[in-house]
Design a protein that fits this description.
By secondary structure, this protein is an alpha/beta fold. It is built from 20 helices and seven strands. The protein folds into three domains: 57 residues; 171 residues, Collagenase ColT, N-terminal domain (Glutaredoxin, 3-Layer(aba) Sandwich), CATH 3.40.30; 171 residues, no CATH class. Strands 1-2-3-5-4 form a five-stranded mixed β-sheet, with helices on both faces. The N and C termini lie far apart (200 Å). The N terminus and C terminus are likely disordered.
């Protein structure tokens, strides 16, 4: 091998590799070393691609900014009252289009609140505590109930109470205060509270239909001058009961005034006097109350009573089987009118009972006379045949079971009490006389008003005047008005009248609609 062939081959110099650009597609080293652009135009396409990418990304960002980016709030617009635009805004139009304005006008003006309790009306007891009181009228009570309902709606719907709602509360309180200032109503309200307190404190234990104790035993209804206290019931109806009884008692009061007009001075003696009527649902409740209120009285036969010290009439709506036949509603009205007459007499004369002056026959007789009634054309006609006629008819015509005129005119409650102190035998006789004073007392008053067309009516009115205004007792008045001969004559006529009345009661069809007229009345007048 020659020396030339023995020499090693010459190597190419080693160089660092050229850096790749971001837009390079990985060409050979020879291309990176070239200073001239290649004939394919690669760099121009890369620039174009970058530009297009920027344009696309920029456009997308712009679109998102237009539709989704939050608008800058106007600091003058209240977020709570802001209304959304219902459509695209037109050039020259207002901020809201017609539809948006309409929605704004009909939308609730109240603002619902979140994150906190709504500001509603507080101290509702200032108003609700007066519900059920006598001085609250039906209209005012309905207004209070409506207000309470609206306040509950505000709270439930989470609305802040507005100025109008607060103003309504002030007006209601003002109306209540004005009603309480009425002397009659405020007094009636005190009567109701006092009576309810008594029934609880005295353990009368009035109960409802389910035998549960009544929290407020009596509901008060005022119809001046009457104040009704009706025993509460789960089925209600207290106002309807009071309204019906009130209609009866108003007619009784008007008839009493008409009858005695021109004879007695009929003016309320006390400007603040109230005619109070207590209506028990059941007889057992009435009897229990009467037993506690009047422990000294014999209440075994009592259907109702009047309390002069309280000017209060107490009567049960149901007599518990003590009236077993006939029209029970008519019998109930008779009891109401009897005790109501005592009450009206006291109201106008300030005399609790005529019997306090020893005139029990006229006291109970007048009460029974007004109790006798009939219904004609929807109106009550007083002074008719009373159910006491049954007691009169039970007596024989030989007068063995009747009391004499002297016994009738002189009997008093004081005599009854003295007889009780003398033993059972005396008490039995006294009880018989006492019961006859009611029936024969009624018959005497009916006789004075109807015998021979009422020839003794003027004398009877004079008797009443002397007893009420002058305080004379029964027999004393008779001695002043009648001679002995007249007294004997009236006694004969009266007992003969009782015989005829008994015959009429026992003959079917003679007494119609509680009315009886003597057939031979004109003959007797001749």
């Amino acid at each position: 091998m020659s020396e030339e062939n023995d020499k090693p081959a010459r190597r190419a110099p080693v160089r660092a590799p050229a850096k790749r650009s971001s837009g390079s597609s990985g060409k050979s080293r020879s291309r990176s070393r070239s200073s001239k652009p290649s004939s394919g135009g690669g760099p121009n396409k890369a620039v174009l691609a970058v530009v297009l990418t920027v344009v696309v990304i920029g456009g997308a960002a712009f679109g998102l900014g237009v539709f989704d980016s939050p608008k800058k709030e106007d600091p003058k617009v209240d977020k709570k009252t802001k209304v959304a635009d219902a459509g695209p805004k037109k050039k020259g139009s207002s901020v809201f289009d017609a539809g948006a304005v309409s929605n704004q006008e009909t939308a609730p003006k109240h603002v619902r609140v979140t994150g906190r309790a709504p500001k509603t009306i507080k101290k509702m007891k200032d108003i609700t505590k007066h519900l059920g009181h006598l001085y609250i009228s039906k209209e005012l009570e309905e207004e209070i109930h409506a207000f309470v309902k609206d306040v509950e709606t505000y709270k439930r719907e989470r609305w802040d109470a507005d100025k109008k709602l607060r103003a309504r509360k002030k007006r209601l309180i003002a109306k209540i205060s004005s009603a309480k200032a009425d002397r009659f109503l405020s007094g009636a309200d005190a009567d109701l509270k006092s009576f309810n307190d008594f029934t609880r404190r005295r353990e009368v234990h009035l109960r409802g239909a389910d035998d549960s104790l009544l929290p407020e035993p009596f509901i008060g209804i005022a119809h001046e001058p009457y104040v009704f206290m009706v025993q509460a019931h789960k089925d209600g109806g207290e106002k309807e009961i009071a309204a019906e009884v009130y209609d009866w008692m108003v007619q009784l009061k008007a008839e009493f005034q008409r009858y005695f007009d021109g004879t007695l001075k009929l003016e309320p003696k006390d400007k603040d006097s109230r005619i109070k009527i207590v209506l028990f649902r059941k007889y057992k409740d009435y009897a229990n109350y009467n037993r506690i209120k009047n422990p000294e009285r014999d209440i075994s036969f009592a259907l109702a009573h009047y309390e002069p010290d309280k000017r209060r009439l107490c009567v049960p709506l149901d007599f518990g089987g003590r009236i077993s036949k006939g029209d029970k509603k008519h019998a109930f009205r008779e009891v109401m009118f009897h005790e109501g007459t005592h009450q009206v007499m006291h109201y106008f004369t300030n005399k609790s009972h005529l019997s306090a002056y020893g005139a029990m026959w006229s006291d109970e007789g007048v009460a029974e006379y007004f109790a006798g009634h009939a219904i004609e054309d929807g109106k009550i006609k007083f002074g008719r045949i009373n159910n006491r006629i049954e007691s009169v008819a039970r007596d024989d015509k030989d007068n063995k079971n009747r009391i004499t005129m002297i016994e009738l005119l002189t009997w008093s409650r004081a005599k009854m009490e003295r007889a009780r102190e003398k033993g059972k035998a005396k008490e039995y006789i006294a009880q018989r006389i006492h019961s006859h004073v009611y029936s024969q007392g009624w018959a005497m008053v009916y006789f004075f008003n109807n015998f021979m067309g009422g020839i003794y009516k003027d004398k009877f009115l004079e008797i009443m005047k002397l007893q009420i205004e002058d305080g004379d007792v029964g027999l004393t008045v008779w001695r002043r008005l009648f001679s002995d001969a007249e007294f004997d004559k009236i006694e004969v006529q009266y007992f003969d009248y009782l015989d005829k009345m008994t015959d009429a009661y026992r003959t079917p069809g003679v007494i119609k609609n509680h009315t009886w007229i003597e057939k031979d009345e004109k003959k007797e007048s001749n």
